[in-house]
Design goal:
Shape: globular
Largest sheet: 4 strands, mixed
Radius of gyration: 18 Å
Distance between the termini: 32 Å
Number of helices: 6
Helix content: 25-40%
Strand order of the largest sheet: 6-5-7-8
Structural class: alpha+beta
Order of helices and strands: EHEHHEEEEHEEEEHH
Strand content: 15-25%
Number of strands: 10
Length: about 230
């Protein structure tokens, strides 16, 4: 589902028209995100830390309207939700891209995402171009604690889905576990003011997810894992 934004009455109209003239309207922001509670939770429950991160970040970006907006054939649309294009490291050392759909709750997300990830790990790696507009592209660099990152683009103009690279988890000087998270967005639709809420929502969702009462993350993960085998 998506709704059309009327450009003529849109408060962002002048910014939209201005940044549409840029050859490269993309910008990137990287921030360390505290993940020690989520990391310990993943270890304790025996659940993939990456899949938990994917749930948190996908849910956070779906709470920010600007990150769900796209330009299609000269018209601006806002999707009700966006999904994730996710890299999975295959057995041959290359990566496969899979489409993981958005789910509001962690139990439903695990049931959906875990079998897809497990199947991709066992299959031959292949690039899977996705021509849908309602996606956010994630990448994972668990070997590199990057402070800045840039993604590959076929073209800069008319590139409206944002890449979200994740980096290596390390301890900071205070002993807290942090992970660099980058957001690369198009200034035609997104300003830095939308990136702050995305990062704040991430922290809140982490706290809410690990405090679910009566929910066995391990049970859901193992059941979903069996579906993927």
């Amino acid at each position: 589902m998506k709704k059309k934004i009327e450009i003529a009455s849109w408060p962002r109209r002048s910014h939209y028209e201005y940044f549409r003239t840029f050859d490269c309207p993309m910008f990137s922001i990287t921030s360390p995100v505290r993940v020690d509670a989520l990391y310990r939770y993943a270890k304790r429950e025996g659940v993939s830390f990456f899949i938990l991160c994917l749930f948190v970040l996908l849910k956070a970006l779906n709470r920010v309207p600007q990150l769900r907006q796209r330009v299609e054939e000269g018209e601006v649309w806002e999707y009700e939700s966006v999904n994730a294009l996710v890299p999975v490291l295959a057995a041959d050392g290359e990566f496969t891209q899979i489409l993981v759909e958005y789910r509001m709750g962690l139990p439903d997300f695990l049931e959906h995402a875990v079998p897809l990830v497990q199947a991709a790990k066992l299959a031959p790696a292949q690039a899977n171009p996705c021509h849908r507009a309602d996606i956010a592209v994630f990448s994972c660099l668990p070997w590199i604690p990057f402070t800045q990152v840039a993604s590959a683009y076929r073209v800069f103009r008319d590139q409206y889905f944002s890449p979200y690279p994740l980096g290596k988890v390390e301890e900071d000087v205070s002993g807290r576990m942090v992970m660099p998270v980058a957001i690369q967005a198009n200034h035609v639709l997104v300003d830095g003011g939308a990136c702050g809420p995305f990062l704040r929502h991430s922290g809140r969702i982490v706290r809410k997810s690990i405090q679910l009462k009566g929910f066995s993350c391990t049970q859901h993960y193992l059941r979903a894992n069996r579906k993927g085998n």
